[in-house]
Amino acid sequence: MILAAIVLALAQQATPATAQPVRPRDPFVFRCVLDKRARMLVAALDEDMWAAWDTTNGAFVKAWKGGVAFDGAVYTTVHGPQPTTRGSDYTSGADANPWIAYVDGKAVATSAAYVGYTLEAGRVTLEWKLTFGANREVSVRERPEFTRPNQLFSPDQIADAELGLPDAPALRRDFEATGLKAGEQVNVVIRTDGTRQKIAQSLERERFEDVEDAQGVVSATRVWSQLPMTAKAPHNSIVLVFAPIALAKAGVPK
Amino acid sequence: MIALLALIALMQDEVGPREPGLSARFYYVGEPIDRILPLVPGQTPNVSRIQETLDMKDESIGGFDDTFYAHVEGYVETTVAGSYTFRLTSDDGSILKLDGKTLIDHDGLHSAVPRAAEVELAPGLHPLSLWYFQCYGGWSLKLEWQKPGKNGFEIVPKSALSCHAGEVRVTAPGPKRILKPLTKGRPGDGQPLADAHPSFDITTIRPDAFHPRVGGIAWLADGRMAITTWDEIGAVWFVDGAQSGDAAKVKLTRFAAGLAEPLGLAVVDERIFVLQKQELTELMDTDHDGVCDRYRCVSQDWNVSPNFHEFAFGLVEKDGWLYFNLAIAIDPGGKSTRPQVAGRGSTLRVNIETGATETVAHGLRTPNGIGRGANGDIFITDNQGDWLPSSKLLHLETGAFFGSRAVLEAGAKDLAVTPPVVWLPQNEIGNSPSNPTAIPASFGPYAGQLCHGDVTHGGIKRDVLEVVDGVWQGCVIDWSQGFEGGVNRTSFGPDGAMYVGGIGSSGNWGQEGKHGYGLQRAQFNSRVPFEILSMSARSNGFELEFTRPLAAGVGFEPENWVVEQWRYVPTAEYGGAKIDTETLVVRTVAISSDRKRVGLTIEGCRPDHVVALHVVGPIADETGAALWATQSWYTLNRIPRDKPVFETSAPAPTSQNVLSPSERAAGFELLFDGTTTRSWRGYKSKKMPQGWEIVDGALTRTNGGGDIVTEAEYQDFELMLEWKIATGGNSGVFFHVDEAHEYPWETGPEMQILDGEKHPDGGSPLTSAGSNYALHAPEHDYTRPVGMWNQARLVVKGAQVEQWLNGSKACEYELWSDEWKAAVARSKFASMKDYGLARKGRICLQDHGDRVAFRNVKIRRL
């Protein structure tokens, strides 16, 4: 009941606050090689959170704190190196195409093509084109934003939902699918372990994946959650609340 | 190897009093030096001291530890006869002379590496002279020897070293001047151009604080310029007011940002496309607020790796497709990465409407240039590297393989290579070529030709192309320098002006001495200089077209047209040498009746070779102007059939040793008519010396006899003549000479004549050809190769003197000025009390013991 209330609150805030966020870099959305991946799209959402997608397959690659070490000819005149992330990750490791389409409840092969991004009122929206089945094409848009629990929920809701610190860093991802027909559903797979809490309008098909160390001992468990979108419910949102990361100085973990 | 230098040594009583150690003088020069060069005479050292031994390292010499010379002199004393091995270790270079002969030449920039030489020495004193230089970084100098019968080296001890006792040690602070050898030629004549083309009025159109590294230029329908910047912002800027040519009227708007290394931009039907490293993107302003709000991916349907060098270069629109090039990956240091990502080194095209992406051609490396020619064809430039012995201009043809095997490796070895349209010989006319573009009608006689920029060589080059047997080929000609940065993008605007975007970075990608950015406008002003407009292949040679008529009577001699030929052989090694280089024989020269076309019949031209033309003769236009650029590099892929060089019925060349009507009208008179020597006689003699003869119409010193002077005296005058000196020869033209002294050079200043390559006087600019001998040096070596005629001109009016050589002012000076007096005082003429003081006198041609010939000797009084 408690989570349901907070999810309802999330749904009611489908449009984020109108005030333009303060970004840590201008331009705050940019393209570059990052961590040896050539087609990265980076959004410097907040001093506390940067996020990166790979436009090759639509993967949400990581969210982290610490920014980017801009190295290479256009930044430092040095030939050879390319930009790398600094600091520590909130979440990472989702390298594959995250999109799955279901037709009449059955998963079908789905490809994601990067369409582009738009900037509006200081916020970014990413767009992908999903192709599945018999040349079915569906457009999906994602609006990522940095937030904190106290920007979304009341103190009571935060306490009731055990969200931890009211000002903990959080990543909000709002999705919208257009062009879906009855019986069709597209899900975006999101890694949700490592979060303090995850709050979504609708979440399904969670999958747990044990990660073994070199000795074969399970050292961690990854959780993959799916956000569904249908013709009737084309919107979905998720807020991933993370534990704060403390850096001694820019980019260096304490 | 044993150098038999000094079996005889000096005795102690032959050298006078000595003291232990060597005499060392240190000269701070304050500028980078890379070898041992002579210092301007008469300069005192910064430090002068006794050096007990030569074993120095990183010492501060009088407050400096870099950019200095040291000259060490004295004697090495040997007590027994035998074989001595000297070992010289220096950082940087050094040269050791013993007994007046060079024993160890260890010159040049290098670390502290040893070099040794063995010599037979008699007992006694052996004069030692050692020059050393230090550029930057740590320094050291060490002299060791291994005595006869001994094992191992030791520092030459103080006990064996001595120098003259009680030397006066005068020093003076401040940097000293070096006598640098002259560089051959001048900008545009054996060297890259240095200045803006005379027909270009160049203005900077960027605000002072705006430093764009321009990756692309395009034009909006409303006349605004759009550029991309290859920088950390990755922006597209609108440059409003660019066509004004006035930076103060320019207004910048950042339209888009966050693009990854955008090196291509196109505007098609008011739609803006930008090429990023990884994506072709359409920039859209959906809310019409003047700023891009939608970055639409048109295509990313090609492979890209994280390698820094996988640039994407573009963009060119043709028939609804956007064309661009992909560079290959390169390891830091310059080697091509192995293996490469598939599909790199290609030209792609993307359909603007559908995003469909196709490979058009492959086999490229760093093709930072793509553009359209006048006929709409697409041309590409590619950069020297492995499989590219030199940079080149290519014609895009569907399915073409351009030769780089970096991607396909062995799979490429059997592919037919589409040859370059034009090879761009490395460093001569290219280094990092950028986008080609067609020259529009607004640029007068150059309309229809192609031009391309160069990031590292700098400036803009013209490409004059033709198709022979279906194969593109043509020449490249230096056109203009004078831009603020290395030229990365060139675009002709709606107003017909040329717009140039600069760039520069590390890694040999930028023009030395220029900004790493730039944005300028070049307006054509119609002041077209005298230059080669085109070079076209013929069955039996080439035809040249000039922008202006050649002066009457010039250019008919084959020796005026030096033609070299070579080919390139691509290999896996970086770059490549010229192969099978040969000088071709120009058999005949035809000049059209309007004197704007020249036909050269040349023996031995071969297909698949570069044929490089250098106009070295005294070629000038009717106004006397020299060529703006004297060279053209033609890539001869095919030799045309049945298309011979034109024959001319133009008048025969003007005879030598005659005055033209204009010369006659200007008041010139002949000092030599080709048949008699009546204007001349021997110095201090009433007769002409026997050693001067008339040979082939030239007044020639053949076999001694002494200097000759004019019968008449001249005060203010203009003298023109041509001279030809023998190999290693020396001569000169004196003026204001009187005959009250033993030699003419005791009174008359001398315009030097010399084969500077073979004669020792060529080692100093002050005594090189064209100099005012020993007093004023030319800036460059303006001479033609030995065996060719050189044009000299001497203008004396009052105290002002100008000395010209082959169309360039070699030097000018003011007689009797303080500067002139100081120069005389530093020279060997200081002791000649009447040197240069006469207000008038005779012209004198010097007999310096070498064969020298003069013709077309003309003079007028001023």
How are the secondary structure elements laid out?
The complex is a heterodimer of chains A (254) and B (862).
Chain A: H1 2-12, E1 29-34, E2 37-46, E3 49-54, E4 59-65, E5 68-69, H2 73-76, E6 84-85, E7 88-92, E8 99-103, E9 106-108, E10 110-120, E11 123-132, E12 136-147, H3 149-152, H4 155-160, E13 170-178, E14 184-191, E15 197-200, E16 204-212, E17 218-230, E18 235-241, E19 247-249, E20 252-253
Antiparallel strand pairs in A: 1-2, 2-3, 3-4, 4-7, 5-6, 8-9, 8-14, 10-11, 11-12, 12-13, 13-18, 14-17, 15-18, 16-17, 19-20
Chain B: E1 2-6, H1 12-15, E2 18-20, E3 22-28, E4 47-51, E5 55-57, E6 68-78, E7 82-91, E8 94-98, E9 101-106, E10 113-121, E11 124-134, E12 140-146, E13 154-155, E14 161-164, E15 186-187, E16 190-191, E17 200-204, E18 214-219, E19 225-229, E20 236-240, E21 251-256, E22 264-268, E23 271-275, E24 280-284, E25 294-299, E26 312-318, E27 321-326, E28 346-351, E29 357-362, E30 369-372, E31 378-382, E32 391-395, E33 422-424, E34 433-438, E35 450-454, E36 460-468, E37 471-480, E38 486-492, E39 498-503, E40 517-524, E41 532-538, E42 541-546, E43 561-567, E44 579-591, E45 597-603, E46 609-615, E47 631-636, H2 661-666, E48 669-670, E49 680-682, E50 692-695, E51 698-701, E52 708-710, E53 717-725, E54 730-737, E55 750-754, E56 790-797, E57 800-805, E58 808-814, H3 818-826, E59 842-845, E60 852-861
Parallel strand pairs in B: 1-10, 15-16
Antiparallel strand pairs in B: 2-14, 3-4, 3-6, 5-12, 6-11, 6-14, 7-10, 7-12, 8-9, 8-11, 12-13, 17-40, 18-19, 19-20, 20-21, 22-23, 23-24, 24-25, 26-27, 27-28, 28-29, 30-31, 31-32, 32-33, 34-35, 35-36, 36-37, 37-47, 38-39, 39-40, 41-42, 42-45, 43-44, 43-46, 44-45, 46-47, 48-60, 49-52, 50-51, 51-60, ...
